[in-house]
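Encode chain A's predicted structure.
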Amino acid sequence: MYSHTQRSAAAIFVFSLAALIPVGLLLGGALRGADAGARITVLAAALVMLVSAVTLSSLTIAVRDGQLSWWFGPGIVKKTVPLSTIISAEPTTTSIINGWGIHFTGRGWLYNVAGRRAVLVTQQDGKRFLVGTDEPDLLARVIMTGARNGGRGTGERP
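Encoded structure for chain A:
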């Protein structure tokens, strides 16, 4: 079994700062003459930024029960792939242009919260995706151990 959570102080900072902008507009009186709908929209934007800070500031990756799973924050965004479908898992580095978050890249979907290190996973059907981690060598080894064992006996975390 493997489980590791990577946290991003930068994501918390950026999203929290973005949430302060609409709050500052309201408290600073910039929207004093605005109707209630506009003020509610600004508050909703602040709330979305705060929820994003909680949701996208950490990424947990787990290898257990024959599956590779990863989720952001408390698990609002979660993905699971059977280990038996994986043919390779390679440590890699993402391009600085790829940035952070969840989006499509030239090498498949990318899921990450910090840094540029990741594991490139290839499935039997040719689909590929990247999972960001600060433990790429260990994660790739654990995934491949589980994949070679047909998803059983993924081993213990060293």
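The longest strand covers residues 86-93.
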